Amino acid sequence: MSDSTPKHTNALIREKSPYLLQHAHNPVNWLPWGDEAIAKAKAEDKPIFLSSGYSTCHWCHVMERESFENEEVAAYINEHFVPVKVDREERPDVDLTYMTYVQAASGGGGWPMSVFLTPELKPFFGGTYYPPENTQGRIGFKNLLKELDKAWHEDREKILASSERSITKLQEYLDGENTGAEVKTDVIIQKAYDDLAGNFDYHEAGFSGAPKFPRSSSINLLLRIQQEWKKDEARKSESEWAAEMSVKTLRAMANGGIWDHVGGGMHRYSVDAYWHIPHYEKMLYDQGQLLWGYADGYLVTQSPFLADVAREIVTYVQRDLRHAQGGFFSAEDADSYAQEGDDHKKEGAFYVWKASEIDELLGKEDGSIFRYSYGARRDGNARPESDPHQELTGLNTLFRAYSVKKTAEFFKKTPEEIMAIQARGMKLLFEARAKRPRPHLDDKIITAWNGLMISGLARAGAALGEVNFLKLASEAAQFLHDELCAEPGKGLHRSWREGERGPKGFAADYASLIHGLLDLYQAGFDVKWLQWAAVLQAEMDTLFLDQEKGGYYSVHTDMAHSVLRIKEDYDGAEPSPNSLAALNLARLAAMLDKQSYAEQAEKIVSLFGNTLQNSPSAVPVLVMAADFLKRGKQQVVLAGDKATPEFQALAAVVHQRLLPNAVLLHADGAAAQAWLGSQNEALAAMNTVEGKPAAYVCQNYACQAPVTTVAALEKLLA
């Protein structure tokens, strides 16, 4: 047997998920979630040990090294439990169910998630990462396993009763949360603004202390509020502050170490309050949502800096996260080997620099200037509290410590000379970094995350006039259509990897993809994306909609092995399916003149009314949906051949304004208009004027006289 031959191989070797494959050679006899594992637990009368994580999860890697690769621990797990591994990104249904339990039982959550279940799948104990041995008052994983095995054999009735009671009480709580309440839109918008303003970090930007997350949905909501309130003289100062909080946060993130200055793209979050030291993984869903944020920020400010950040996000995603056929991969890991031959990976190893490395690449003088402007120090720039495991000692994460102007003044150079040194430095660092071992790439393609990326590309492409962004978005949408959709009406799939589809799609997949398709239609006017969005909305209603009370369950009704029925509302790292669905339905109602869509959206807003009233900043996308329902009956219809310069000029007028409560439609005088007219009679009669492309600006389809010039359209939209 060669040294490279794995000592152990378990059932995960048959899976496609990169995360499950990472554990395929653990001595733990992992099984994937499904019938085989459940049948084994019942037949052997053993509890299930469910471990959920994802392939770019730092603490998942740590627990694997410490416990799951340990022969003694693995032998104990194999003898006393049925071990099951879940990729939370591939099976968000399983993860959501048991994370809801963990959060209710312990008050916190995270990954890796460690939950112990009866063979009937009811949880009786759960937590997150456990160290291998008892430490600082926290039980070690080895002792936890022994205690739970003892309890299973000696206190079985107590465990079964407790697990049954936990699920019953949790379902009652979830149902009670969604009892509905009347929503006064102006009141919830004011409270959302007040809450965000109250939590805003005046010095460093962002809406919390450490850790700080790039929560684009809050930024988008504030920019939407700014657009509404700027019309009211009495609210001028609040309007300006809404924009200031948003733009300052966008700039702070792009200047901070959370932004990859060498290769582009945003890291997952900042571990400190200054945006300096990040958790280094990069997620597709962050890049897509931030494109929306930077595009809206650009529309409000016309800032070239914000536009450039958006372009660099796309450069990164296209270069490092794109499948050759058009779909986008999920993530890049935080951890990697510092150099070939290392025995274990370190967080951030691919991204950090010694001061001596920078000086060697640029020369001593230019290196000194570069390091000054990007905060790189001889002794490293990570504060102790940002580096508890001392993996970053003597190393630097680049961030804009000083502006070009201040750097030029300090070194008695011209700004042009400083910018030339910075550009040369970034090129040399990029080339040097490319020779390092790369972080692991999670190359599965997730429908929901691709939907968010399509949305970001479409919005940024329209705002910046970048045709290539729309091409990338269209190719991604086509990939999803061809590879993740069995056929119209037969269901969407959650994921795809190496030619194979993963499980059936969840509510988040439908909502996010519909969201992206609506944005893509409005950016490029290809009606097939709007048509597909309408088909997917019908499928989503069939699979997930609570016809009686409203709102969408996260998992479809025939999903096996589901012990909880959950309707998500929190807009966290990703928008919740209910928030996005409400916004999608409101937009579809305005596009297709379908009142039932608006009523469905209003039912969602009412269902989560208590959350909207008490914590609107927790559901910013749902607040946007409520606002759209109240104000969003404006339609802008462009008639004519979209390929002509005259049409493109009119489209640019609309695309280059932030119009959060409007929908944009195209009357092409041909098949697309015929289909739209069959959905919405008002569109059937909208035509060019004397052969020229024309714009119709309407409120509830009561339209002003069509205009054919840029100046006239600008006046109407003003």
Task: Describe this entry's structure for a reader.
- The chain has 718 residues and is of the alpha+beta class.
- Among the domains are: 11-177, Glutaredoxin (3-Layer(aba) Sandwich); 201-442, no CATH class; 633-718, Glutaredoxin (3-Layer(aba) Sandwich), CATH 3.40.30.
- The strands form 6 sheets. The chain has a 5-stranded mixed β-sheet with strand order 1-3-2-4-5, sandwiched between helices.
Kindly state the mean pLDDT as a whole number?
94
The total of helices stands at 28
Terminal CA distance reads 75 Å
User: What structural category arises from helix and sheet content?
Assistant: alpha+beta
Briefly say what this structure is.
By secondary structure, this protein is an alpha+beta fold.
Layout of strands and helices, then pairs:
Elements: H1 18-22, E1 31-32, H2 35-44, E2 48-53, H3 58-68, H4 71-80, E3 82-87, H5 92-106, E4 113-117, E5 123-127, H6 141-154, H7 156-177, H8 185-199, H9 216-229, H10 236-255, E6 269-270, E7 278-279, E8 282-283, H11 284-301, H12 304-320, E9 331-332, E10 335-336, E11 346-347, H13 355-362, H14 364-373, H15 404-411, H16 415-433, E12 441-442, E13 445-446, H17 447-464, H18 467-483, E14 495-497, E15 500-501, H19 507-524, H20 527-544, H21 577-592, H22 595-607, H23 609-614, H24 620-631, E16 634-639, H25 645-655, E17 662-667, H26 671-679, H27 681-684, E18 694-699, E19 702-703, H28 710-717
Parallel strand pairs: 1-3, 2-3, 16-17
Antiparallel strand pairs: 2-4, 4-5, 6-7, 8-9, 9-12, 10-11, 13-14, 14-15, 16-18, 18-19
Helix pairs in contact: 4-6, 8-24, 9-10, 9-11, 9-24, 10-11, 11-12, 11-17, 13-14, 14-16, 15-16, 17-18, 17-19, 18-19, 19-20, 19-21, 21-22, 21-24, 22-24, 25-28
